[in-house]
Design brief:
heterodimer, A: about 300 residues, 10 helices, about 75% helix, globular, B: mainly alpha, two-stranded antiparallel sheet
């Protein structure tokens, strides 16, 4: 089989099916630290299959937006995933300026997620939407600063080229990558609603963000949304993984290393969720702003590297 | 140019003949018909320009304007296209919008006169090649739009907003006069063709002139800190007029800036940074205040400031590209900025028209009292949704294309080996990303509070049907434009290269790489749409039953519309985060006694710039000038004394100076 076709297949498989295992591993880790046996790693997959068969209950307040939005959320996340480099830094759609297209396509999904939450006329979901929108405004500029800095360092405009940073920039490269990984990890926690920003296990706390937005979704709508949020997690993990994993490995080694990094990140998230409590809402802003400072550090390191002190 | 002149004559005829018609209805129909003819004729000439002709004509008007040159280069032709198409659609819309006013017995004679005059003056502004004549048509434009703004002049706040607009426009023209005066002193001519490279020997003066022109035209365009007229004038005007003003007229300010830029041709680095910084601040400021507004048209007006900022970012990047001799950066910047002019005029007009439809049905602009309109007004809601997505710059609509070009220009600009450029651009990239996400916050708020959920008032719940075809038709055309530009960016980019070639020499860069990038984006947009609809169809393969029930409210089954999130609560987390940037005005009457009978709470955000800078400034000016009141005391004897003193002084001067 042609290597490119194989990589495309791998990318799509990882994108579609890795979300279940990643979430399963997070749950398993949490169970381990809590001293429980925990559910199987495959449980999220079984849940999804079960939800496919279920009927939907739809609020009588809603309009076609509520019906349409889950599809848009899923489709945009899947499509954005095609831009993301995965195994051997191969991205299916490899264009210059890809990260801008990637972010804006995800933005379209977010737009629909927000209006779908508002469509139910529920005060809970409105609250979740307003917080989600607010956090995005903090996360997104920082993400753009990081990606723009990495692009300058690698001298290439494609998403895949971000991995060159370590190789071609020596000690600075290592420093920059550490900072960027920290920032992206905070982004991962925020965007995928993990502790300490958000707690995906409690459904009806007034402190909720993402989970509260989908209170009224059920059946296949719920499947699409949770699947999409899992995919987003895998996408961000893949970005982090590609920053760390060195280039030039064999196919088998890079597949192994890539999957291992994803699993490792899931274990870290699970451990983090067991070790710390979620922050108070007023402190969450401060936590998310830390990402901006990391981003600025990345940018200044890049400037120092290119122009000297 | 003959076709263009026929168009102008048709517009003026339309305006003045409509005065003679008796029935109000016919007046408007006649004006629309003449606008249609004018738009067609003007488009013919614009198309000829894009096909390669460079049109130019000389007319003589008396002694003052012998050999007045009108000409259309690519830039003018681009603006002629925008003005004629967008104005025509707005005029069609006015047929439906003004019907209610006519039924109420409102006299629309003056409105029908000034509507075509405004369009004609805008067309003349972008084609005339003489500074003096430019100022005259510019003034006609400002005045006619002033009369259009005060359509509902019986309302006090409308007159107030109108006067504010008039004052701002006259401050604006002072700066433009000074800038043009400097040019004509240097070249001893009023012709634009002579202005080119007038200050090549003196770059400092060139910078000064550019800044003066930027301030003058920037007041019209609505750059921060000269934006204050926008959020007042747009809500006051009828919707089609706000649509025309925001979609088209403020762009003439951008035209002015671009035209002055062609005179300078090689901008200095400093003014490039100046434009970039002002634009980033405008964009952020505009969207920040848009989030805090509850008046739908005020919200849209602030968004105009944001989008003017984005256009300015494009132009600023282009200027920096020119200054650093980096043609690809300049091309991308200018192409993005100029394309955003077109894009913004499309979706902003669509938004204003949709807001006007909502206003026609509910008679309120306060979004806190709306809700649930997607059910009775499904078409308007869909159109508003399309425009909202487009204005947030999200694919697959047109806003994304221009923003992507600007982003890509900035990314290319990062490679220019210069640390200040690096810092400026990386912050601008973050700024533009922030603007984009804030726009998402703002438009999810606007769309969902107006159209989704349950109606929040009696007016909103009484709406039973959508607006008529004269509302829907122009809006659908605009929505189609947003989608077409979004799906076929390669053609529009190719088209944009023509106006850009005025600023950047075409042989200096290779655009094929960007065109192929645009082709990929086109495929992506197409793929995304297909994926969404295939998945949507796929969803219906699962023949599961759907059950209707009330929204989940923790087991509480009698939710009311008051329990929904409102616009201010939706914006609240964001606004609390940035409290110092707002001036909160709270009007509260707390419930008192054991059985409180009335209570009241209202909160609005005032413009910080107006509250802390402009108001104190004008107050101090007022107290300063009040000191001179004694001179003008109405006493005729004293005035005669002034005259005598003046004559005596004049005599002394003559004697002394010989």
């Amino acid at each position: 089989m042609d290597k490119n076709i194989m990589l495309i297949l791998f990318n799509i498989l990882i994108l579609l099916f890795m979300p279940f295992f990643v979430i399963g591993i997070v749950k398993k880790t949490k169970a381990f630290w809590a001293g429980r046996k925990g559910v199987s790693v495959f449980q999220p997959l079984f849940d999804t299959i079960r939800l496919f068969k279920k009927n939907r209950t739809i609020s009588s307040t809603t309009s076609w937006i509520f019906n349409f939005a889950p599809v848009v959320v899923f489709a945009t996340t899947l499509f954005a995933g095609l831009f993301v480099p995965m195994i051997q830094c191969y991205s299916i759609i490899n264009v210059a300026g890809a990260f801008v297209i990637f972010s804006y396509i995800l933005g379209l999904g977010k737009f629909f997620a927000l209006i779908s939450a508002m469509d139910t006329g529920s005060s809970f979901e409105g609250m979740g939407a307003s917080r989600e929108a607010c956090f995005t405004t903090i996360v997104e500029p920082a993400f753009f600063i990081i990606l723009a800095s990495l692009i300058v360092l690698s001298g290439n405009y494609t998403f895949a080229s971000i991995t060159d940073v370590i190789k071609s920039n020596g000690t600075f490269g290592v420093l920059i990558v550490i900072m960027a990984v920290f920032a992206l990890f905070i982004m991962l926690l925020t965007e995928c609603s993990r502790v300490p920003v958000d707690d995906p296990t409690t459904h009806l706390e007034l402190t909720m963000i993402h989970e509260v937005m989908i209170l009224d979704n059920s059946g296949i709508d719920l499947v699409l949304i949770t699947w999409a949020s899992g995919m987003k997690m895998v996408i961000l993990m893949a970005l982090i993984a590609n920053l760390i994993i060195p280039l030039g490995l064999g196919l088998k080694a890079s597949i192994g290393l890539f999957l291992l990094t994803l699993i490792l990140l899931a274990v870290i998230i699970g451990t983090l969720e067991s070790a710390i409590a979620r922050l108070r809402m007023s402190h969450v802003f401060e936590f998310v702003f830390v990402m901006s400072s990391f981003a600025l550090i990345v940018a200044s390191l890049a400037a120092v590297k290119i122009y000297g002190i | 140019m003959e076709n263009f002149f026929i168009g102008i004559v048709a517009l003026f005829l339309g305006g003045f003949i409509s005065l003679l018609l008796k029935k109000q209805d016919y007046k408007l129909k006649f004006v629309s018909f003449m606008t249609f003819i004018a738009a067609c004729f003007c488009l013919i000439d614009a198309v000829r320009v894009f096909a390669g002709d460079r049109l130019s004509d000389m007319l003589s008007f008396g002694v003052m304007f012998q050999n007045l040159v009108f000409s259309m280069d690519y830039l003018s032709a681009f603006f002629v296209v925008v003005i004629s198409v967008m104005s025509f659609l707005a005029v069609i819309y006015s047929n439906g919008y003004l019907k209610n006013y006519i039924l109420k017995g409102k006299n629309i004679t003056a409105h029908c006169l000034f509507l075509p005059v405004l369009i004609a003056s805008m067309l003349l502004v972008v084609t005339v090649q003489n500074a003096l004549a430019f100022l005259i048509v510019w003034e006609i434009m400002s005045l006619s739009s002033f009369f259009l703004v005060i359509f509902e002049h019986e309302k006090k706040d409308v007159i107030k907003a109108g006067i504010k607009y008039l004052v701002y426009m006259h401050v604006s023209i002072i700066f433009i006069i000074v800038a043009f005066a400097l040019f004509s002193i240097q070249t001893s001519s009023f012709n634009f063709s002579q202005f080119t490279d007038a200050f090549n020997v003196n770059p400092m003066l060139a910078n000064l002139v550019f800044v003066l022109a930027f301030v003058g035209f920037g007041i019209k365009a609505g750059f921060f800190p000269f934006h204050n007229w926008l959020p007042d004038a747009h809500p006051a005007a009828p919707s089609h007029v706000s649509a025309m003003m925001s979609g088209v007229m403020i762009k003439t300010g951008i035209y002015g800036i671009l035209r002055v830029l062609t005179f300078i041709s090689h901008p200095e680095v400093q003014i490039g940074y100046f434009v970039l910084i002002i634009s980033v601040i405008s964009a952020l400021y505009g969207v920040l205040y848009a989030i805090s507004q509850h008046d739908i048209k005020r919200l849209l007006a602030y968004h105009s400031i944001e989008n003017i900022g984005i256009i300015g970012i494009g132009i600023g990047v282009g200027m920096l590209g020119l200054a650093y001799n980096c043609p690809i950066v300049a091309t991308l910047g200018f192409a993005g900025g100029i394309l955003h002019i077109l894009n913004h005029s499309i979706f902003k007009e669509l938004l204003f028209l949709a807001a006007g439809s909502v206003y026609t049905k509910t008679h309120t602009r306060d979004i806190e009292t709306l809700g649930g309109l997607i059910k009775p007004m499904s078409k308007t809601a869909l159109l508003f949704l399309i425009a909202s997505i487009a204005i947030c710059g999200l694919p697959p609509f047109n806003g994304f294309i221009s923003e992507f070009l600007i982003y890509f220009g900035m990314l290319k600009g990062l490679m220019v080996d210069n640390i200040s450029m690096f810092i400026a651009l990386i912050l601008s990239i973050a700024g533009l990303a922030l603007v984009g996400t804030m726009a998402i916050l703002c438009f999810t708020k606007a769309f969902s509070v107006v159209f989704l959920g349950e109606p929040r008032s009696k007016e909103a719940s009484e709406v039973k049907e959508d607006t008529t075809i004269s509302f829907i038709f122009p809006m659908s055309v605009l929505a189609l434009f947003t989608l077409l530009i979004g799906i076929f960016p390669q053609f529009i980019f190719d088209f944009m290269l023509k106006p850009v070639s005025i600023f950047v020499d075409r042989c200096l860069f290779d655009a094929t790489q960007i065109i192929s990038l645009m082709q990929i984006i086109s495929l992506c947009a197409f793929g995304l749409i297909v994926l969404i609809f295939v998945l949507f169809g796929f969803k219906y393969l699962f023949k599961n039953k759907n059950e209707k029930y009330v929204t989940w409210g923790c087991g509480y089954n009698k939710p009311t519309s008051k329990m929904q999130y409102s616009a201010s609560s939706y914006a609240s987390p964001f606004i609390t985060m940035l409290t110092p940037l707002f001036k909160k005005v709270v009007d509260i009457k707390k419930p008192k006694t054991i059985f409180p009978c009335d209570a009241h709470f209202e909160m609005r955000m005032e413009d910080v710039e107006e509250a802390y800078f402009l108001k104190p400034l004008f107050k101090s000016l007022e107290t300063f000038f009040a000191k001179f009141e004694k001179i003008q005391n109405g006493n005729i004897q004293q005035y005669i004394t002034y005259g005598l003193i003046f004559l005596a002084l004049a005599l002394v001067c003559v004697v002394i100076l010989g």
